[in-house]
């Protein structure tokens, strides 16, 4: 928001606490457009696991989401041992497999690619 827009925001309070912010329509459209950006992001906690614990993205995401290998493998239609091997490897995995794993974890496949 620019300075002019900040001055145009109306805050509506309920019980002494901010409940709503009313913004100019043009700003609403800009924010809506930004919210619809389909860029898949990676949370700081996942990046931290990759750097500090030297996990690959697949393992870092699974740990971040609190899922077991068995749970993810079952949802993705692969064996637990195959998933374990994928988590130890740093090579590129098949796109179709990454898509299944991403779906099993509720994330975008692009979030599993370095």
Explain this structure.
The protein has 114 residues and is mainly α. The protein folds into two domains: 3-35, no CATH class; 44-112, 434 Repressor (Amino-terminal Domain), CATH 1.10.260.40. The protein is 54% helix and 10% strand. The chain contains seven helices and two strands. It has helices at 3-7, 25-35, 44-52, 57-64, 69-76, 80-88, 95-105; strands at 10-14, 17-22. It has a two-stranded antiparallel ribbon. A hairpin with a 2-residue loop joins strand 1 (10-14) and strand 2. Helix 3 packs across helix 4. The longest helix has 11 residues, at 25-35. It starts with a helix and ends in a 9-residue tail after the last helix. The mean pLDDT is 88.
Rounded to the nearest angstrom, the distance between the terminal CA atoms is: 32 Å
Number of domains: 2
The CATH top-level class label of the largest domain: Mainly Alpha
CATH architecture call of the largest domain: Orthogonal Bundle
Helix content: 40-55%
The number of distinct helices, counting runs of at least 4 residues, comes to 7
Mean pLDDT: 88
The value of Rg in angstroms is 20 Å
Shape: elongated
Our estimate of the beta-strand percent is 5-15%
Biggest beta-sheet profile: 2 strands, antiparallel
Numbering strands along the chain, what is their spatial order in the largest sheet? 1-2
Number of strands: 2
What sequence of helices (H) and strands (E) makes up the elements?
Answer: HEEHHHHHH
CATH superfamily of the largest domain, by name, is lambda repressor-like DNA-binding domains
Q: Determine the CATH topology of the largest domain.
A: 434 Repressor (Amino-terminal Domain)
Q: Outline the low-pLDDT stretches.
A: none
């Amino acid at each position: 928001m620019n300075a002019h827009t900040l001055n145009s925001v109306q805050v509506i309070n309920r019980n002494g606490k901010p409940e709503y912010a009313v913004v100019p329509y043009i700003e609403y459209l800009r924010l809506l457009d930004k919210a619809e950006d389909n860029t898949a992001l990676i949370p700081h906690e996942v990046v931290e696991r990759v750097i500090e614990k030297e996990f690959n993205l697949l393992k870092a995401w699974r740990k971040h989401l609190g899922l077991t290998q068995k749970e993810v493998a079952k949802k993705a239609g692969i064996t637990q041992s195959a998933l374990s091997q994928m988590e130890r490897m740093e090579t590129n995995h098949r796109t179709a497999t990454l898509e299944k794993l991403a779906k099993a974890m509720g994330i975008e496949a692009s979030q599993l690619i370095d």
